[in-house]
Amino acid sequence: METLQNIAQGLLERGDVSMVIGYTPGTIPGKTKTIFARTPEAAQKLTFNENCVNNLSIYLTRQYGNIGEKPVALVVKACDARTVNVLIQENQLKREQVYLIAVPCNGVKDEHGVEQGKCKSCAQRVPKDYDALAGETPAPVEIDPTLRFKALEQFDAMSPDERWEFWMKEFEKCVKCYACRQACPLCYCERCITDKTTPRWIEPDTSTAANLSWHITRAFHLAGRCIGCGECERACHQNIPLGLLNRKMAKEVFDNFGYRAGESAEAKPVFADFRYDDKEEFIR
Amino acid sequence: MARIGVFVCHCGENIGRTVDCSVVAKESAKLRDVVYSVDYKYMCSDPGQIMVKDAIKKHNLTGVVIASCSPLMHEKTFRRAVQETELSPFLCEMANIREQCSWVHEDKVLATKKAVDLVRLMVEKVKRNTPLEPIRIPVTKRALVIGGGIAGIQAALDIADGNQEVVMVEKSPSIGGHMAQLSETFPTLDCSQCILTPKMVSANSHKNIKLYTYTEVESVTGYIGNFDVTLRKKARYVDDSICSGCGICQEKCPQKKISSEFNTGLGKRPAIYIPFPQAVPNIPVIDKERCTYFKNGKCKACEKFCDRNAIKFDQTDEFINIKVGAIVVATGYEMYNIGKNNKNGIKGYGEYGCGEDPDIIDSLQFERLLSASGPTFGEVKRPSDGKVPETVVFLQCVGSRDKAKGMEYCSKICCMYTAKHTMLYKHKVHHGQAFVFYLDIRAGGKNYDEFVRRAIEEDGAIYLRGRVSKIYREGDKLIVKGADTLSGSQVEIAADLVVLATAITAQPDIVPLAQKLGVGYDKYHFLSEAHPKLKPVETNSAGIFLAGACQAPKDIPESVAQASAAAAKVLGLCSATELEREPYVAKVYESTCAGCGFCIEACPYKAIDNKAIVNRQGKLIKNVAYINQGLCQGCGTCLSVCRSKSIDLAGFTDEQIFSEINSLFV
Predict the structure, then answer these.
(1) Does A186 map to a domain?
(2) In B, which residues are within 8 Å of A91 by CB distance?
(3) Which tens digits make up the pLDDT trace of B368-378?
(4) Domain layout of chain B by residue ranges
(5) Which of B644, B648, B649, B656 to mutate against chain A (most A CBs within 10 Å)?
């Protein structure tokens, strides 16, 4: 069995990769931070534990400039690898530009020991596709797949008016700091639609209506793409349950097209794929 | 500062009846930047156009709004008028106050108010219009004709006679199509092959036509005037440059009992074969699946006897790249098969025995029985025992007009050919009796109804209006049980032969080809024209035209007429060295494009590609979308999938649309 540090050290010693992006213990107990290990020595600082909540695939996007001539190694959980697949699907990255070091994951927790929502319904212990596995292949687990959309049940049970009321209350809190966007590995647009001024698609103020149009637009833009890493919700200091919006869109996409984002880097993105057997119930 | 002129048209009573045009003109005058407005009875008339031109000069207008009918009607008229002044034609917009206002409303006050709103929208839009330049693209003066049936042959000949080069491809070993299989043709009963074969020969020998048989279209890229096509010339295992077509190989081939496609299974052929005596080109092809050598590695009888050494067992598929400016699709049809195994979920006819009884045949098989070159040399003999049938029952609308079988359309040609069949049968078997079960007799066309009357009155065919519920065998006879709805009685006929006029269906392999070409198709897989009335030959992919039954069931005269129409379109296209087209195409803002590629996948015209942006050292900075203006049809699908709004549509920019919408909230 190879350890994470050994794999990373080897890669850096051989010069196979320009850096290894992974986790290292943070300064606050129960938290980890990102490390960009460029030397074999730095590789020793790498760690993986149940506090490694962050989705590090964001550092592969063009804005960070980490991708150069040589590949970059990235420590990934199963969910993070799905994001990498979406980035490859969307031409932001080539598979050969990234070296995936998979870490077996049994679910991650925040600094208060609370398990993340996404982990409750996740049965995938290692990614489908990776270059090296740090640790041993864990025993498979069985989890009821319907759990994935369990959280939506209480919202779907609400009347449209109640739902509207709920979301307007949530969006009222938004201060448009755009942390959700900044934390999202798939919000890689060179210029976000909300920053476009001619014409202005989204009102720039923080009225509830303007906030609504921002969040709804963002949810639409992530439909069929969001893999549910939950970084937007974690980044939101106003505690708006943004993950719910994305999960709702994921359910719609799954129900209508049988598609789950990030399952394969070769799949066509669902919203750019048209098939004659597509359900077209929404047109009626 | 914009100076806009508004011209309100009454269109006689068409608009004036429900919209108070003078009020619209007065209200328009109050809009910001409108410096002149007027109403007039017929704006499209000469005096109306002169009013527009004079006003442009007199008031130094920077933009014009014509409030009248749909731009589909008169946009060209007014833009041409505007162009005659110094103003760019693209600074003229139309507010549709007829189709979208006066025709659909009754309340004059409200309709007038809406008309003012529509004018206001267009004033806001035209202020943001830019003087676009029409796009010019070069034209390759060569056409591709796909399909070598009568439609394809006619189109190729007409184009070639117009002094343009044609490449013609046919997937089967010979051109001729279904028409070559027919015996005689309605409504004149002239021999099908006699009128077709001279055209086949001309197509093969014409100096402007390059013919590829046993060839299929592998891929199509490019756009109007500039298509790049790859053809797959399938291995014939016979060198067509050496073979003289002597036919000795056919004689010597030990495999003699293969069911002949040309004779619709009623005749036999060897494994190396020329499909029919008049085939063009007269070159055989080896059926690899059935050839003894290909199966067992031994035989090569054909090779031994070929004195020209034309047999090439090592031949492989050859790929040929050609450049063409226009494409005519003439891929024809296929007959619906009543058997159990049908494509597209279409059901067979269990009540008619699912094609398992040899004496229940389809019309094309009956054509072969009637044909002098057919398996019975023109004698009507039934397939089971070779007996001359004395009672023949013809069933129309088998599959067609039958919702239960999934084909609700009328196959159009069956009424006529069934009448023809009864006549030809009577002419050959004088004591025979023909019965026809029909739903309606559809004989619209020159001399068509007279023809059907002749079949009934002179040749004694008995027509019964109704469907047949069951056909079953009783000894030597086929018992046909049906209804005669006109007399309200049940009919039972003991027949010797039953001929089913099965539906005309689309080619089974048309969908992949349609997708390669970017041509739409309907739920029956017939190819779609651009407009059912005004653009019946064009498709929605510019530069690709339709001819014949690939579009819908058609008879020979119609196919020929459409083929000539398609040829005229091709010749028109080739008459110019450059094409001019409307500049309403998408454009990419490269600085903000993240190159996600959604637009590339979403574009129905394959007009978008990746473009690498590199720095001075040639190092890749990023990939962005690149729009081929020749291919782009301006549909806007790419805009809708672009999350960062890095694509815009010239002439219909987001800014223009936004300002239109915003103008409604004043």
Answers:
(1) yes
(2) 595-597, 610, 623
(3) 999 998 999 99
(4) 4-127, 144-226+317-332+509-576, 235-315, 334-505, 586-650
(5) B644
Q: Are residues A151 and A97 in the same domain?
A: no
Backbone phi, then psi, for B165, in 5-degree steps?
-75, 145
The kind and range of the H/E element at B95 are strand B92-96
Residue A224 domain-assigned (yes or no): yes
Q: Does residue A231 form part of some domain?
A: yes
Question: Could you say which of A133, A163, A189 is where a domain stops?
Answer: A133
Is some CB atom of chain B closer than 8 A to the CB atom of A201? yes
CB contact under 8 Å between A191 and B646, yes or no, is yes
**CATH number for the domain formed by residue range(s) B586-650:** 3.30.70.20
A48: containing domain: 4-133
Q: How far is B1 from chain A (nearest CA, A)?
A: 19
Domain count, chain A: 2
User: Nearest C-alpha of chain A: how many angstroms from B589?
Assistant: 11
- Do A163 and A268 belong to one domain? yes
What is the CATH number assigned to the segment(s) B4-127?
A: 3.40.50.960
On whether any CB of chain B is under 8 Å from the CB of A196, the answer is: yes
Shortest CA gap A5–chain B (Å): 32
Q: Widest CA span of chain A, in angstroms?
A: 62
Q: Say yes or no: A219 and A277 in one domain.
A: yes
> For B654, which residue in chain A has the nearest alpha carbon?
A199
Range list of H helices, B281-375:
292-296, 301-305, 363-370
Comparing B4-127 with B586-650, is the CATH topology the same?
A: no
Q: Per-residue pLDDT for A1 more than 70?
A: no
Same domain, A187 and A125: no
Contact list, A193 vs chain B (CB under 8 Å): 643-645
Total residue count of chain A as it appears in this document? 284
DSSP B399-458: STTBGGGTB-S--SSHHHHHHHHHHHHHHH-TT-EEEEEES-----STTHHHHHHHHHHT
Residues A163-207 have pLDDT tens digits of: 999 999 999 999 999 999 999 999 999 999 999 998 999 999 999
Contact A269 B654 (CB under 8 A): no
Q: Which residues pair with B328 in a beta bridge?
A: B145, B545
pLDDT digits (tens, 9 = 90+) for B181-228: 999 999 999 999 999 999 999 999 999 999 999 999 999 988 889 999
Same domain, A11 and A55: yes
**CB-based contact, A193 to chain B, within 8 Å:** yes
Q: What is the pTM of this model?
A: 0.68
**The domain made up of B144-226+317-332+509-576 is a member of CATH 3.50.50.60:** yes
- CATH number of the domain located at residue range(s) B334-505 in this protein: 3.50.50.60
The answer to whether A64 faces chain B, any CB pair under 8 Å, is: no
Q: Which of B623, B643, B658 faces A91 most closely, judged by CB atoms?
A: B623
Domain-terminating residue out of A82, A112, A133: A133
- Residue A14 CB contacts under 8 Å (≥ 6 apart), including other chains: none
What is the average per-residue pLDDT within A28-52?
A: 94
Answer yes or no: do A111 and A177 share one domain.
no
**3-class DSSP string for B541-581:** CCCEEECHHHCCCCCHHHHHHHHHHHHHHHHHHHCCCEEEE
Non-local CB neighbours of B30 within 8 Å, separated by 6+ positions: none
- How many H-runs (helices) and E-runs (strands) does chain B carry? 18, 34
Q: Does A268 contact B at CB distance below 8 Å?
A: yes
Do A63 and A171 sit in the same domain of this protein?
no
The continuous run of DSSP H or E covering B621 comes out as: strand B620-627
The model's pLDDT over B251-287, given as tens digits with 9 standing for 90+, comes to: 999 999 999 999 999 999 999 999 999 999 999 999 9
Q: Specify if A49 maps to a domain.
A: yes
In this complex, do B645 and A201 lie within 8 Å of one another by their Cβ atoms? Answer: yes
Over 70: is that where the pLDDT of B345 sits?
no
On whether both A208 and A104 belong to a single domain, the answer is no
Query: Which residue in chain B is spatially nearest to A89 when comparing CA positions?
Result: B596
